[in-house]
């Protein structure tokens, strides 16, 4: 939250804020702690989803902790993270407990290693991010969580983008408000399963779980939005799409000039304006395991995603997914069907199993998709 003017308000008025505010949602905090105690960090298929297992060495984070009102309700070890150092200075040890680990950091780029959290509590903290920034911020949270980790998010209901409130008694702060349907799409894209969403006094209280899948790396105005069919189990495990060494996507994307760093979706978005998503978020061993309903739901979500973010072009990698969801007779190249009002391009699979298509041909397809974006569709 370092670029957020709200942080300056909290830095300069932390004492006043602490004196005039109090802890909210104690019932939700108790429920969240109970989820953690019941073993919310599940294991997949009977195997540990993390090399160290979901044990006590994993942290529970309060993201945007403020003066630490909720910390005593979280099971240790606890990470207290906030962009305001003045707020963090007010965080102490819980009654009879150990002082939490305090970290000053931006929610947009968490300084945490992969899969170090077994739970994340974020009460009215992501509200200070512009809606356009939230998908990538949640993708970073997904990276830091173990599969199955419990997540609690509190965001404002409504439909406004990062504006000030006329009635704010701490003026200068900015807030985003979310329609519930839009927030649900963002959660799906972030690889978070919403187990429940309760609206209370214009606040959306979300109980979610970190899924074993890939998170979207997306933002408004992408040059190209690359859409795979669905993650492989291996890709979901390592956290990168098209991850196997035999897959030619990253070599082709480098050769086409779309990316400048291999196997780094975040860098592709931030540095080159290339986003990534999947038609279906559920990972499988084979595409044949996917259902017609999943294709339909995935296409509907993708339509909404493209309409909201307006990428230059949506580039589908792999003929099978497009043919199953849209047009059984489709051939590679620009498609007559637009996605969310945006141009669509279809290219062959980059898998090493697709020996009929060379690396040079795959590179040419990515260049053609990027060119379609530059031409405005």
Question: Could you please describe the fold and organization of this structure?
Answer:
31% of the residues lie in helices and 19% in strands. With 377 residues, it is of the alpha/beta class. Strands 1, 2, 3, 4, 5, 6, 7 and 8 form an eight-stranded mixed β-sheet that branches. It has a five-stranded mixed β-sheet with strand order 10-9-11-13-12, sandwiched between helices. α8 packs across α12. The radius of gyration is 21 Å and the shape is elongated. The model is unreliable at 41-54 (pLDDT under 50).
Tally of individual helices: 12
Strand runs, count: 13
Helix fraction, binned, reads: 25-40%
- Provide the residue-averaged pLDDT: 93
The proportion of residues in beta strands is: 15-25%
Task: Briefly note the structural class of the backbone.
Answer: alpha/beta
Order of helices and strands: HHHEEHEEHEEHEEEHHHEHEHEEH
Q: Give the radius of gyration.
A: 21 Å
C-alpha end-to-end distance: 35 Å
Give the overall shape, derived from the CA principal axes.
Answer: elongated
């Amino acid at each position: 939250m370092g670029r957020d003017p709200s942080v300056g308000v909290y830095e300069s008025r932390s004492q006043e804020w602490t004196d005039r505010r109090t802890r909210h949602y104690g019932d939700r905090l108790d429920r969240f702690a109970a989820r953690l105690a019941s073993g919310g960090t599940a294991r997949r298929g009977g195997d540990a989803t993390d090399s160290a297992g979901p044990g006590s060495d994993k942290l529970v984070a309060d993201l945007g902790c403020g003066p630490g009102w909720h910390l005593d309700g979280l099971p240790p070890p606890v990470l207290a993270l906030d962009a305001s150092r003045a707020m963090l200075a007010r965080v102490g040890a819980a009654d009879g407990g150990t002082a939490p680990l305090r970290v000053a950091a931006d929610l947009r780029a968490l300084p945490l290693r992969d899969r170090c959290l077994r739970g994340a509590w974020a009460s009215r903290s992501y509200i200070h991010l512009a809606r356009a920034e939230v998908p990538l911020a949640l993708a970073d949270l997904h990276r830091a969580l173990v599969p199955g980790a419990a997540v609690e998010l509190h965001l404002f209901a409504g439909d406004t983008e990062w504006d000030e409130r006329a009635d704010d008694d701490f003026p200068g702060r900015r807030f985003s408000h979310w329609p519930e349907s839009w927030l649900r799409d963002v959660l799906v894209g972030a690889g978070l399963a919403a187990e429940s969403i309760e609206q209370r006094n214009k606040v959306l209280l979300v109980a979610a779980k970190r899924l074993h899948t890939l998170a979207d790396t997306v933002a408004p105005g992408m040059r190209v939005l690359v859409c795979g069919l669905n993650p492989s189990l291996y890709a979901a495990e390592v956290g990168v799409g098209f991850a196997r060494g035999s897959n030619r996507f990253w070599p082709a994307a480098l050769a086409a000039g779309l990316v400048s760093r291999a196997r780094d979706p975040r860098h592709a978005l931030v540095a080159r304006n290339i986003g990534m998503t999947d038609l279906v978020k559920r990972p499988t061993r084979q595409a044949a395991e996917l259902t017609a309903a999943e294709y339909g739901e995935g296409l509907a979500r993708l339509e909404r995603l493209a309409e909201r973010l307006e990428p230059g072009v949506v580039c589908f990698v792999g003929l099978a997914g497009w043919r199953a969801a849209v047009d059984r007779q489709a051939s590679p190249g620009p498609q007559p069907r637009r996605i969310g009002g945006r141009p669509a391009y279809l290219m062959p699979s980059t898998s090493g199993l697709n020996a009929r298509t060379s690396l040079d041909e795959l590179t040419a397809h990515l260049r053609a998709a990027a060119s379609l974006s530059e031409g405005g569709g």
